[in-house]
Amino acid sequence: MKRAILTVASLVLGAGIAGAEIAPADVKYDDAGAVAESLTGAAGDAAAGRAVIGSKKLGNCVSCHAISEMSDVPFHGEVGPLLDGVADRWNEAELRGIVANAKNTYDGTMMPSFYKTTGYIRPGDAFTGKAAQTDPLPPLLSAQQIEDVVAYLMTLKD
Amino acid sequence: MKLKSLTSAVALLALGAGMAVADENAPLVINGEIEIVTRTKAPEHMENMSEIRSGWTFRSEETQKLQMDDFDNPGMIFVDQAREAWETAMGTEGKACADCHNEPESMAGVRAKMPKWNEAAGEVWTMEMFINSCVTNRMGAEKWGWNSSEMVNMTALISSVSRGMPMDVAIDGPAAETWEKGKEIYYTRYGQLELSCANCHEDNYDNLIRADHLSQGQINAFPAYRLKNAKLNSIHNRFKGCIRDTRAETFKEGSPEFIALELYVASRGNGLSVEGPSVRN
Asked: How many CB pairs under 8 A join A and B?
């Protein structure tokens, strides 16, 4: 009895989130690549975003960017700029645009598009080397993870 | 004594930091006699770089040292195995490589020109293809897999006798079309990460990507003994790994795409010495 109620409640909750979420194909970028609206309709969780950025299995942002505040995570890369103080250089909408699809902000950038699902050449099934199973692909990060990452980046002030 | 323990403490510290910073200008001389060109002027056809560098110059001092003496180079164990295979008769013809080619040293210079146009076949061939043509047509044996130990070991032996000679791959004449195709592949941004070879090995060599110190992705030093998987690795196997890391569907070893890419990448190393079998991490 208790269990049944709980299941219904989580179903409703799930549907609620899906309703508010902006799908990758529907994200509105302005001319400079910024995204004004939260992809989930809510604020992200900076602590969860920090984990996404440091994890090899998730954002793996530190493979290209160094962040002094994350010195507990080993091996930061040098391919992209140091992210210290990034919230002084960009506002929240701009950061959301960069994380979702940096190519709208920087033409031809090496930074991967984390919330994009089509338009790839020989897309693979994650890191297996085999062909992708679906078209569109699942995005590299979910809407929630993008918002969490943005929330964390907003804490990086000098 | 005190000085010595201090030095080793420093070495340990450096190791702890991920890599001992190697002197990128250190000379590579193998067995105290084979001089290797590890840095030189980029060939004419290269558009975006002025200097080319062997992958050896990007490795830690410990890894570099392993390649300076054949007794320390684990890849040479496989060269010795290939020397035995060279003498061993096989197939319906009951012939050994040695029956037609004498000593393995008769292959000196071959690796420096590979891949190259094969007039009879009307296409560009890599060393694996020339080897398999002997194995099947001339010896009457089953062909060797691209990544089989027989094949990779034999390419290591044939490379080893050219060590110190400059890479000199032809990109004009009938090979030009294949070279163009390889160049296009080199600059294509594959996979969900949309990364090309050039993104990592032209735009970002010398930078760290996570714990990896990016080299120029040269192939003058192949096959490469990798400490990571403790075996000799073929060129196409390395290409496959790099493309896989872009979350792409890879090409197959021996595919027309990888043959073209090999010709193009080899030509980017024209002027560097043949170095294989090398040691990498």
From this structure: 80
What is the distance, to the nearest Å, from the Cα of residue B264 to the centroid of all Cα atoms in its chain? 13
Sign (positive/negative) of CA torsion B32, B214, B150, B112?
negative
Nearest to B159 by CA among B82, B61, B259: B82
- pTM, full prediction: 0.91
Q: Give the integer Cα–Cα distance in Å for B175 and A54.
A: 45
DSSP assignment string, B108-163: TTTGGG-SEEETTTTEEE-HHHHHHHIIIIIT--PPPPTTSHHHHHHHHHHHHTTT
Mean pLDDT of B93-119: 98
A13 burial type by CB count under 10 A (0-12 exposed, 13-18 middle, 19+ buried) = exposed
Task: Identify whether the C-beta of residue B268 lies closer than 8 Å to the C-beta of residue B218.
Answer: yes
CA A52 to CA A55: how far, in whole Å?
Answer: 5
Rounded Cα distance between B220 and A78, Å, is 26
Q: Give me the residue label for tokens 């290591």.
A: B156
Structure tokens at B164: 């110190």
Does residue B217 contact residue A69 with C-beta atoms inside 8 Å? no
- Secondary structure element (H or E) that encloses residue B8, with its range: helix B2-16
From chain B, which residues contact A within 8 Å (Cβ)? 18, 188-195, 199, 203-204, 207-211, 240, 243-250
Query: How far apart, in whole angstroms, are the C-alpha atoms of residue A43 and residue B175?
Result: 57
Tens digit of each residue's pLDDT (9 = 90 or more) over A26-66: 999 999 999 999 999 999 999 999 999 999 999 999 999 99
What residues form DSSP beta bridges with B226? B231, B280
Nearest to B155 by CA among B126, B128, B125: B128
Going by C-beta distance under 8 Å and a sequence separation of 6 or more, which residues neighbour residue B104? B82, B83, B86, B97, B157, B158, B161
| A123–B249 CB contact, under 8 Å | yes
